[in-house]
Amino acid sequence: MARLTAINPEQASGKTKELFNAVQSKLGVVPNMMRTMGNAPAFLEGYLNLSGALGTGKLGLKNSNLIAMAVAESNACNYCLSAHTYLGLNLAKIDEATLTDARDGIAKDAKTQAILQFAKLVVAKHGQLNDADVAAVKLAGVTDGEIAEIIGHVALNIMTNYFNNTAGTVIDFPVVAAHVATV
Predict the structure, then answer these.
(1) Would you give the DSSP letter of residue 43?
(2) Quick check: is 112 in a domain?
(3) Angstrom distance (rounded) from CA 11 to CA 25
(4) 67 and 50 within one domain
(5) Residues 6 or more apart from 98 whose CB is under 8 A from it?
(6) What is the domain extent for residue 49?
(7) Which SUPFAM superfamilies match (predicted)?
(8) Among candidates 25, 40, 96, 26, which has minimal Cα distance to 66?
(9) Average of pLDDT values for 1-11?
(10) pLDDT value, residue 1
(11) Is 60 exceeded by the pLDDT of residue 93?
């Protein structure tokens, strides 16, 4: 059940309308998460800016989507699992088995698996990683810049997970449920 109201794009005004128009032109639709974030245009703009900036990084669309799956599973965010499964299948062209495995930090190649396990570790340890944690991901060939991007993607996804779990955002994608129970 929605706890925060999703704004109808046709009724939006000001900065919210401007941001919705930008999302609509890029995606062809304004998803419920963004419609709900539109209640606070500064928040929506911050989300869009960070997402856009990270989208230009070295990790790429596939890895960013897989990180989103791992983080969403860790936070039991059904909205984000649903959205990133849909986007992974249809935009990033990732097969369903790979998306499902990513939820548990599993990947077929060693570097991707190290990225996903590191992302899940950042979540589990609330960013309090130690030398061995960082050394392990570097051993898999992940660069300092990529580590920084992983942390950025984790932070972005924690933000959306917490927002959607708190807001009770109505899922507007085929529903995918977390393996763990929500509170």
Answers:
(1) H
(2) yes
(3) 17
(4) no
(5) 66, 88, 107, 108
(6) 9-54
(7) AhpD-like (SSF69118)
(8) 96
(9) 96
(10) 86
(11) yes
**Do residues 87 and 123 both lie within one domain?**
yes
pLDDT in tens, 32-68: 999 999 999 999 999 999 999 999 999 999 999 999 9
- Identity of the amino acid at 141: G
Residue-averaged pLDDT of the chain: 97
Residue type, 175: V
Note whether 33 and 82 are same-domain residues: no
Written as six digits, the tokens of 152 are 């950025």
If phi > 0 it is left, if psi is from -120 to 50 it is alpha, else beta; for residue 168 that is left
The verdict on residue 106 lying in a domain is yes
Phi then psi dihedrals of residue 110, to 5 deg: -60, -40
Q: Can you tell me whether residue 82 is helix, strand or coil?
A: helix
> Which amino acid type is present at position 130?
N
Per residue in 101-140, pLDDT (tens digit) is 999 999 999 999 999 999 999 999 999 999 999 999 999 9
My answer on whether 34 and 79 are in the same domain is no
The string of DSSP letters for 84-100 reads HHHHHHHTS---HHHHH
65 touches 50 (CB < 8 A): no
As for how many domains the chain has, the answer is 2
The pLDDT, as a whole number, for residue 128 is 98
Residues 156 and 86 in one domain: yes
Tokens of 21: 């128009």
Most distant CA pair in the chain, distance: 52
